[in-house]
Amino acid sequence: MIERRRAGFKMPAHSGSRLTPGSSIVNAKGDVVTEPVSESATETAVVIHPDLGGIGGLRAPSARLEEAIGLAAAIGVACVYSEVASTLRPRPATLFGLGKTREIRMLLDAHDPRPGLVIVDGALSPVQHRNLEKEWDVKVLDRTALILEIFGARASTAEGRLQVDLAHLTYQRSRLVRSWTHLERQRGGAGFLGGPGERQIESDRRALASKIDRLQTKIEQVRRTRTLQRAKRKRAPQPVVALVGYTNAGKSTLFNALTKADVRAQDLLFATLDPTMRAVRLPSGERIILSDTVGFISDLPTQLIAAFRATLEEVQEADLIIHVRDASHPDTDAQRRDVIDVMRSLGVRDDAAGVGGPCVIEALNKIDLLDAEDAAAARAIAVASRDHAASTIEEPAQVCISAMSGAGLDDLAAMIDDAITGDRAAHLVWLGDADGAARAWLHAHGDVAADAPEAPMDAPVRVRLSAKSLGQFRKAFPDLAVAPAGGATPASASGRALA
Hints:
Elements: E1 3-6, E2 24-26, E3 32-34, E4 43-51, H1 61-73, E5 77-86, H2 98-110, E6 117-120, H3 126-136, E7 139-142, H4 143-154, H5 158-172, H6 176-179, H7 200-235, E8 240-245, H8 251-259, E9 276-281, E10 287-292, H9 302-307, H10 309-316, E11 320-326, H11 332-345, H12 352-355, E12 359-365, H13 372-388, E13 397-400, H14 409-421, E14 425-429, H15 436-445, E15 447-448, E16 461-465, H16 467-476, E17 482-484, H17 491-498
Parallel strand pairs: 4-5, 4-6, 6-7, 8-10, 8-11, 11-12, 12-13
Antiparallel strand pairs: 1-5, 2-3, 9-10, 14-16, 14-17, 15-16
Helix pairs in contact: 4-5, 5-7, 7-10
């Protein structure tokens, strides 16, 4: 079945091919050079999704095509024609058959002005990439290149640019034949006596490999820095809660709603790239660090996963993961599976209780966009899930929310509170009049029970602490006596209280 959309086709006209905004090349020094991207760019493109006969997971080919059009819009490229092309027998030379290749060439020629870009929503080999550009006389981007262009346009920090540059260079390393036209051999020796010497492409590959090595060294420094930062946060009492989800699921909108921040949030794929962290106070008074991470997508390029591993490891080390889903999207189940696959590739452990992996809460966002019947059914399923959920990636506790309207955010905050403080046990701490700092510490990092009016002056303070906070308290105040509530009173405690 062929699905097509076209706009504005006129008499055939032809003009030279143009670079799309955000497109990148590698110069002779191995540096990534990216054309500036304008959100209001008027660049036009043809988007083709090759249907390989059911090789596409849970999504329909038409849904994959719509996602590719959204990816193009993310870098300011307007789609003038889109099509799902049946490709049951992919050709090694051009992917598409000869007839389809010629048909697309005719479509390009028939449009005025002639589009300067064709986006193929699939993976192209270097040979296919080069042959299609020659056949169509336009710039061609496959899915990996398109996502890399978006990340290149969105990276705003030095760390983000480093990671994007590494991903670009790794991707283009096998495509030097597309980027260079000066591939003749350099003559060696003096005069006419020298041999053919080294080919230019060999010199360029060496320069590119050297650049990649330098970037990998810098990325490793970033990774070590983030490891030290995480180690410091582990010593601190604040647990880390990471927001993950498919791109455009509403993570940044939820982040802003919970933290009162002003992180960029748009109805746009990959509107947020660089991770952001903010402190949040829960209803119980517990203080957490909320982390907004980059969105995931189906067929996320392996180059990006490798390059952004230093950033994505924040998810792996989080105490709690909130998986934000777009409940109104027709492919919400397929998006969920893609996010789970990426988290598994990052090494996120699945059994929270068995091996110490993070707990997982699934926030079904945009519930206000569902009709009343579907919304009621989703809420009933979410409430039922909390009674038997294992709080793992595959079996999370669910909550229905709308980050835009604020519906369900109180329930989400309460679930975060329960997940963070659920492992706390009651302890008794004996404090004297001079232990004001210890008393303040307990109030800041634990749940301190109110003193009963008839309690004696030397009565211990009853407080609920996690194992981590208990260890931190004992390290900070080694002279104070602490005992489990209901256990025997330490001898040192009675002596201290009498003193």
